[in-house]
Structures are given as structure tokens and as C-alpha cells.
Amino acid sequence: MTTAADYSEKIPNNVCLNEDRRLQRALESWQPNFLHWWESMGPTLPTRDVYLRTAVNVGRDGWARFGHVPMRDYRWGIFLAERAPGRLIGFGEHKGEPAWAKVPGEYRADLRRLIVVQGDTEPASVEQQRNLGATAPSLYDLRNLFQVNVEEGRHLWAMVYLLHAHFGRDGRDEADELLRRSSGSLESPRILGAFNEETPDWLSFFMFTYFTDRDGKYQLGTLKESAFDPLSRTCEFMLKEEAHHMMVGTTGIDRVVERCARVMVENDTDDVTGHGAIGLPVIQKYLNFHYSVSLDLFGGETSTNVANYYTAGLKGRWMEDRRRDDHKLASDAIMVDALTGEGEIGHTEVAALTGLNTDLRREYIADCQSGVNRWNKILADAGLPQRLKLPHIAFNRKVGAFAGIEASPDGERLSPQEWERGSSAWLPTDVDKTYVRSLMRPVYERGKIAAWIAPPRHGINGQPFDYDYVHLS
Ligand SMILES: [Fe+2]
Ligand SMILES: [Fe+2]
Q1: DSSP state letters, 251-300
Q2: Cβ contacts of residue 109 below 8 Å, gap of 6+?
Q3: Which ligand is nearest to the CA of 244?
Q4: What is the whole-number distance in angstroms between the Cα of residue 146 and the centre of ligand 1?
Q5: Residue of 271, 282, 276 lying closest to 259 (CA atoms)
Q6: What pLDDT digit, counting tens, does each position of 176-235 carry?
Q7: What is the full DSSP assignment across 368-411?
Q8: Separation between Cα atoms, residue 238 and residue 221, nearest integer Å
Q9: CATH numbers and ranges of domains, the chain
Q10: Distance 214 CA to ligand 2 centre (A)
Q11: Ligand 1: distance of its center to the CA of 311 in Å?
């Protein structure tokens, strides 16, 4: 198998699609449905072309090429990372056996479910972000939005390929359903809660790409460990693209904080509202919201389903091969977050296998903290005493051990009345959202940028900030 994509094909791919006519025809008949979905649910801003990267190869160097392309003509393709010859299963009861090229019958339903849940998030985020093109703070940001959008579209292709290639009729039905559900729909919403929230402004977009896309990174990281080799190789390549989405979120929030700090210092004030910037209290509230809904995406603190997935070899841990244990965990224990017998926020010990969601969530939390540290360094460098922080794990949770209680960002348990009184100081209010929205005016002139955000330090692919990243139509 070669790693380079065949772009003479209708569907660019490195999986030798032309050797399997049935599969090729099935995917070619799904393709117009995808394009119809993209036209009706994708970005609403009309553009002539956008400076986009397109994956062309999965190898170490030169895996993508950049150029101005009309978005409609973007070549969404199917790419699997190179096969590691002789790859062995790294964990669970099949540890040490050869990885599976085909889906074992007994795991078919579980694997299909895992792929569908992952697949469902990809088009969902495109739908959530579809109107943001109307209010981009610069052409650079507009281009990054569209890059994220086309790649989430490609991630949908990645999951649909697996469904078509390995799950027969049910897989094809599921692939159709992925285009039928839609974000925020009452009749057929997306599967996971955070993917039905709206992304109405660019601060939300940066928070989403920082916190929610980062959940995706961790989910892909666990699926990359899978004994089912095609899933593992797909996720490995998706992670490569995902790095850019993380960069958009991290540096996006950097730039909002930087601008805010600058206005605070220049005007010697904590209240930047009159100066067209977004203040730290509002940034903190948006952070609180996006972080807490993203924590929910990891599921309950304990889960027997996830224990079974692990034992079966379907879904591993983050960086499985760096863990120094037996990779079976049958007799290990873990402390997980829990309500204690007295109803206090605390911990309890459970079998390591049932606590795997907690293990993954902790990896994620540590990663989130690194962003907060970065933003606090920007504040410190500006000579400001204020700091941002991650709220407590029990804050604003709708899933898991703390779903039934209220807690402050400091982790203090609250009565419903106390929550009612406090929540407007912790989560974005209508007033906050309206203010943020009032700043969202498009800036489409080359080299110009909106007043609420600092320009980026670097352009894309070595191009300057004032490059013509997008041609509007
Ligand atoms: Fe994705
Ligand atoms: Fe992403």
C-alpha cells in the first residue's frame, strides 16, 4: 500500500478504493449526500476561494499542500496512517495478539457504536459554526474557521469509510443517519450534549476549539490504541489534523486575553467594556461554561461499558504504551470523584477498569490547565494581578456523579437557591452574550483586525498576517 493519495479518483484516498468496486460505488453514492449536507448545513458565508491545506499523504514530511480552493471543490479524502507491520494489541484480554484487520463478530455492535458516536461530533461542529463567517475578526481567522470546518468534514468521511467498509448494511444506514441528525434539532439532535449547544460568537468558537475539540483529541487518542487496526490508523491521522484545531483555540484565547490586558493597562482600568475589548470576568464565564460542558463529554466517573471496551481491546487509555502496568488492570483500583455517603463532594475507590473515564478526564484536565497557565502568563507579563482558572470538577455538571447537585467554581456544595443567586456571576448571562455579540463585526480588509482581539504572531504556512487568505464572492 502506498501512503500518497490518489487524486485522480473521485474520492481521493490511500486505501486502494479502486480495488473494491462495491465499496467504491457505495461511497460514491454517499458523496452527493455529503455535498448536499455541506451546501445546506455548512458555512453560510459565500466565498470565491480560501487558502486551505489539503491532506495529500500520510507520511512524516509533506503530508499536506496549501492553496486557494473554492470550498465546494475541497477534496475530502480517505486517509489511514501507514500500517505498522506486525502490530500487536497493546492492552486488554487480547494483549499480545495480532491487531485485527477485520471486525470480530462479537465486537461488531460495540465498535460500530464507538465509531458512530465519534463520527456524529464531526458534522455537528460544522453545523454549530456555520454562521461564524459573517462576523470574523480578520481574514486570517476566517480562513482558520473554514480550515477547521473542511477538516471536520473530512473526519466525517473517515468514520463513514469505516462504517461502509466494515459494517455492511448497518454501517451504510448509520452513515446516512450521520447526515440526518443535526445540531440543536428537536426531532433528531446530535448524540452528545455539547454538540447541540450553539456557537454564536467568536469567543465561543475559540473556547470550543480549545475545550471541546480537545475532548475530541483525547477520544481519538484512546481509539488510536484500538485493536481494530483500521480504526487505529484512521484516528492516528485525524490527530494530525486536530493539532491545528487546538492551535486555533489556544492562540485565539491568547489573543483575546492579550488584547484585554493591553486595554486594561493602557487605560488603567478593570472595566474594558467601554473600550471595545472583552473583559476578564466575561472570558472567565465563557471558560467556565465550555470547560464544564466538555467535562461531561467524558461520561460518568465509572462505567462498565468502558471497562468492557478496554478489556475487549476496543478503546485504550491515553498514551497506553507509556503506562507502567500490566495493561489489563484486572486487579487495580483508582480513586474517582464522587459524592460521599454524607453527600459531600469527595472521592471513592473503584476498580481501575470501571474508572477509566475518570482516568481519561484527568489527562484532559491537566492538558486544559496548560492553556490557563499560558493565558495567566500573558496577564502576568502585562503586570496585572488578575488570573483565570479552571472551575472545580463538580461545577455545572450535567453528567456523572455531580449531575444532581450544584457546586460553586471553588467546589463548594450549594443549595438550589444559592446556585440561583450565584450563577450569573459564573456563567455567561444574556447581558454578557449580547455584549460579546455586539463586538462581532466582520473585518474583511487585508491586514486589518477587530478591536477585541490582538493579531496573531504568525500567519499560516509562512504567509504574513495581511495575506489574502480568503477571497469573498
Ligand atoms: Fe474532528
Ligand atoms: Fe477538530
Answers
A1: HHHHHHHHHHHHHHHHHT-S--GGGTS--HHHHHHHHHHHHHHHHHTT--
A2: none
A3: 2
A4: 13
A5: 276
A6: 999 999 999 999 999 998 899 889 999 999 999 999 999 999 999 999 999 999 999 999
A7: HHHHHHHHHHHHHHTT------PPPTTTT--SSTTTTSEE-TT-
A8: 10
A9: 17-472 (1.10.620.20)
A10: 8
A11: 26
What is the 156 CA–ligand 1 centroid distance (Å)? 8
Residue 60 has pLDDT above 90, yes or no: no
Q: What is the pLDDT of residues 345-375, one digit of tens each?
A: 999 999 999 999 999 999 999 999 999 999 9
Q: How many residues does the chain have?
A: 473
Please choose, from the candidates 156, 159, 143, the residue with its C-alpha nearest in 3D space to the C-alpha of residue 53: 143
pLDDT at 7: 74
Q: Tell me the three cell numbers of residue 52.
A: 486551505
Mean local confidence (pLDDT), 322-327: 96
The rounded Cα 205 to chain-centroid distance in angstroms is 11
Cα of 417 from ligand 1 centre, angstroms: 39
Handedness of CA 352, 357, 362, 367 (dihedral sign): positive
Residue 146 CA to ligand 2 centre (angstroms)? 12
Which set of grid coordinates corresponds to residue 70? 473554492
